[in-house]
Write a structure and sequence with these properties.
The complex is a heterodimer. Chain A is an alpha+beta fold. Chain A is 17% helix and 36% strand. Chain A has helices at residues 9-12, 106-114, 119-122, 226-244, 266-278, and strands spanning 16-20, 30-34, 37-44, 48-53, 60-61, 63-66, 69-72, 93-102, 139-143, 148-158, 169-179, 182-188, 196-207, 210-219, 252-253, 284-285. Classes of the chains: A alpha+beta, B alpha+beta. Chain B: Residues 266-369 form the FAD-binding FR-type domain.
């Protein structure tokens, strides 16, 4: 067997998303690319999910079905995926908002997801607006026990925070990065200020410089149709895509001296250190290469 | 398949764009030896060639906004100045003047023969080829060829658009042709990367008077010929792997890689400027335009001041009046003080056009926040200088503001041209006595609402009055920003105490008659300072322990009450021991 294109053991042993279950025609075989390899997969309500390297149909890859997606791994994955307890709350609407290809590395896309300072400039008059550009101090913690980056008390003035909001408000966010290529954000719900909407991005690394971004929504919204909620998130993502595709280098540089962080980038600094600590080499430019 | 690495050819300077590519408010993306370049012209005509990458998150600057004076990165709105590529504003932290010198990588530029030239090697002298200047020159449309430079040069040797050209000489990616009857031609091969080139041509000796040969005819003729050549070369060379010659990216300086801000420079006079122009900017106000002797001046952000080292040995602080993008000189306004201790009198009477002065780099302890919905600027007399810089910035960004300018008479209003350019946002208040000034300030400051902020600069009593009125009108202390010209208070230097420098692991005694700043410097610790009278804020230090006695006019009441910071040039300690973060 030829050597697999990805040799990073950390990344090989991760669970990676392949497709939204709701968009997978039951009982049919599909193919996609993961870590530069052609992967076949299939799903049915009775048999669940299966995945294999094309050309090696006999050898089944491990699979999971979580949060509405089919996941697989090319190595030896952990028993389970990170937890998102809100997903199981009965009154939430869970859906795949979109799966969009982006010509960028997965870690660059995660940093963009964690970033608030770009709202007024990239998501103008929706998630932010000039002159309300300040990113006030927030807290970042790397939990050793849960092995994830956590940013809390992230506040930003937003003209229109979600499909269901009509006026501007200061919105509070919490970000989690429980997986090198996955992140979850919690933001004050327009419908129920006591609870939070959940938006997660699961990045499928096609290769070191291409991803398919799967966007999960788990929201409290009774007023809007699925289509409206999806359109809102898709238009947001459409604004990020050209920025991400114009970042250079496309792989995330982990040397602290390769770019210039400011206090607003605290979460990104923690994320880069966390990746360095894991010894990740795929999708990044390791420090001191 | 031939694969020639371009390496570094003999000539260091290469064309990277045509002058016609750098049109108004556009950013052109160029490429040289594998390195991407952002090429743009500011409204003052200067052409910039920069690394095509914002230092913050690596986003291409060729997708940035060229507002005529600065490039604004699309991702986070960071602004970079014309000429020096210094970052002038970081919107995520509107209260901070970028204290660290964040500067994008720039390359030297020459614009000649209708082309923009640059070199990636900084220490290489200008070695531009000399092109014949006979008759008028006409740059051709550039043609990109997917082939290594050597192959393209080889094919160009037999270039002939109309049987009229003859190869006269060849050197360093340049071929010169003589025309038997028509214009001559120079063809230049710009090595974009290992497998791509751009062919640029300049016709010389074009006879503008000849009605048979229009410029358009010539351009079309050569465009067709170059396209034929491209097709031929590309089919001979065959498809190439894209050039895998990504250049090494330069690392940012170490102090930029860490989150905490670096220390600022001490009292220095690192800049040399020539008085380019001196004029009467208003009654008793001399205007000075100071141009660099060599190179570029560091950018002065709105609110910044410079220390001017005068021929008589005095050092004085003056705010920089410059508008955004006005980067080729500093403009200062100096009021003649009747009781001048030698500063303003020297500048008014002694310093002349052509004189050379030493300046510190600009320092900004009065930074302008640009995240307010409305900004009030209230100036008294010569206090207008920093506020003019702010008003011009706010106007340039399209942010709502008013500049209220109090002066003795109309003739005392300084910088008429700049005031006129600001239009309706300027409100002039002339000839008011103390009572009338107070009443007018009350009217101006009456309308406090969230999203508003005020900046005050002027004589001490006026700032005092305005701050009191603002407090009465319900303005929160943090929305009222002010800068005094000088500290009018009597400074008490009688106490003695001990200062622990936590980071330097030193303890120093401060005896009566000495300042903390002097004692710290004596102990060998470098400290920045500027006015040294408690007005400018440069020598600020963080207090870890102890009870400061504030004698400055820089900190506001809330900051003084918190006891977390101290101006080391004038303030002292009430406790026997003070621990500073130095």
């Amino acid at each position: 067997m030829p050597t697999p294109p990805c040799t990073d053991p950390v990344v090989l042993n991760l669970w990676h998303p392949l497709s939204a279950v709701a968009e997978t025609a039951a009982g049919q075989d599909h193919t996609t690319t993961l870590l530069e390899e052609q992967i076949g997969y299939a799903w049915s309500p009775d048999a669940g999910a299966r995945a294999w390297r094309t050309g090696a149909t006999q050898h089944q890859l491990p699979t999971l079905v979580r949060y509405g997606y089919i996941w697989t791994s090319l190595g030896t994955p952990p028993k389970d995926l990170f937890s998102i307890p809100e997903y199981d709350e009965p009154d939430r609407r869970n859906m795949n908002a979109s799966t969009i290809g982006v010509h960028v590395s997965a870690p660059r896309a995660i940093e963009n997801f964690l970033d608030m300072a770009h709202f007024p400039f990239v998501h103008t008059d929706v998630l932010g607006s000039e002159p309300h550009t300040e990113v006030v101090e927030y807290d970042v913690d790397v939990s050793a026990e849960r092995d994830e980056v956590l940013a809390t008390r992230c506040r930003m003035f937003q003209p229109k925070a979600s499909a269901s909001s009509s006026a501007g408000a200061e919105v509070e966010y919490v970000y989690r990065v429980p997986h090198p290529y996955c992140s979850i954000l919690y933001k004050t719900s327009g419908d129920d200020p006591g609870r939070k909407d959940v938006i997660a991005v699961f990045l499928q690394p096609v290769d070191q410089e291409h991803v398919r971004a799967h966007l999960l929504l788990s929201v409290l919204d009774d007023a809007h149709e699925d289509k409206e909620i999806r359109n809102f998130q898709q238009s947001i993502f459409g604004q990020d895509k050209p920025i991400l595709e114009n970042q250079f280098p496309k792989r995330l540089p982990l040397d602290p001296r390769s770019e210039t962080p400011i206090r607003a980038d605290k979460s990104a600094v923690a994320y880069r250190r966390w990746l360095s600590g894991k010894g990740i080499t795929y999708g990044v430019i390791p420090a001191g290469r | 398949m031939t694969r020639t690495q371009p390496g570094l050819p003999g000539r260091a300077w290469h064309p990277v764009a045509s002058s016609a590519d750098v049109v108004l408010r556009h950013v052109f993306q160029g490429r040289l030896l594998g390195r991407e370049l952002a090429v743009w012209r500011a409204d003052d005509g200067y052409v910039n060639v920069w690394e095509n990458r914002c230092l913050h998150r690596g986003v291409r600057l060729s997708i940035a906004v060229n507002d005529g004076r600065e490039l604004k990165c699309q991702y986070h709105g960071w602004r970079y100045s014309n000429r020096t590529a210094e970052c002038t504003y970081i919107p995520a932290h509107p209260a901070d003047a970028p204290a660290r010198t964040i500067c994008n990588r720039t390359f030297p530029v020459v614009e000649r023969h209708g082309l923009v030239w640059t070199t990636l090697e900084h220490d290489r002298p200008e070695d531009l080829p000399v092109l014949p200047e006979r008759g008028s020159q006409l740059p051709l449309r550039a043609v990109t060829v997917a082939a290594p430079a050597a192959d393209v040069v080889g094919a160009l040797r037999s270039y002939d658009a109309d049987d009229d050209l003859r190869l006269a000489s060849e050197s360093d990616l340049l071929l010169r042709f003589d025309g038997a009857s028509g214009p001559g031609l120079t063809l230049l091969v710009q090595p974009s990367d290992a497998t791509t080139c751009v062919v640029r041509g300049v016709l010389h000796g074009v006879d503008e008077a000849d009605p048979d040969v229009s410029r358009l005819t010539l351009l079309r003729l050569h465009n067709r010929a170059l396209n034929r050549l491209r097709a031929r070369v590309e089919s001979e060379v065959g498809p190439l792997e894209p050039g895998n010659d990504e250049p090494e990216l330069e690392l940012v300086p170490e102090e930029l890689a860490e989150l905490p801000p670096a220390t600022r420079p001490g009292r220095s006079a690192s800049l040399r400027v020539r008085v380019e122009r001196k004029w009467s900017a208003g009654v008793d106000v001399a205007g000075f335009a100071l141009a660099p002797l060599t190179g570029h001046l560091p950018v002065a952000q709105p609110g910044a001041h410079v220390d001017v080292h005068l021929p008589n040995g005095c050092v004085r602080q003056y705010s920089v009046v410059n508008a955004p993008g006005e980067d080729d000189r500093y403009v200062l306004g100096v009021k003649r003080e009747p009781e001048s201790r030698g500063g303003s009198a020297c500048l008014h009477d002694t310093v002349r056009e052509g004189d050379v002065l030493a300046l510190s780099e600009p320092r900004n302890n009065f930074p302008l926040r640009r995240d307010a919905e409305h900004t009030l600027l209230v100036a008294g007399g010569i206090g207008v200088t920093p506020l003019l810089a702010m008003a011009q910035t706010l106007a340039h960004h399209g942010l709502d503001h008013e500049l209220h300018y109090f002066a003795q008479t109309e003739d005392h209003l300084a910088f008429h041209d700049r005031l006129a350019a600001l239009g309706d946002s300027v409100r002039r208040h002339c000839g008011l006595d103390v009572a009338a000034t107070t009443a007018r300030l009350r009217e101006i400051l009456a309308g406090h609402a969230p999203g508003r902020q005020v900046y005050l600069c002027g004589p001490g009593p006026m700032i005092e009055a305005a701050r009191e009125i603002a407090a009465e009108c319900g303005w929160p202390v943090e929305k009222v920003h002010f800068e005094y010209f000088q500290n009018g208070q009597e400074i008490d230097k009688d106490s003695s105490f001990e200062v622990d420098l936590a980071r330097s692991c030193l303890t120093v005694q401060v005896p009566p008659g000495q300042t903390i700043l002097e004692a710290v410097r004596e102990a060998g610790v470098t400290m920045p300072s500027s006015c040294e009278q408690g007005a400018c804020g440069t020598c600020i230090a963080r207090v870890i322990e102890g009870e400061p006695v504030h004698q400055d006019v820089y900190l506001n009441e809330a900051e003084k009450a918190s006891g977390e910071a101290i101006m080391t040039c004038v303030s002292r300690s009430a406790s026997p021991r003070l621990v500073l973060d130095l």
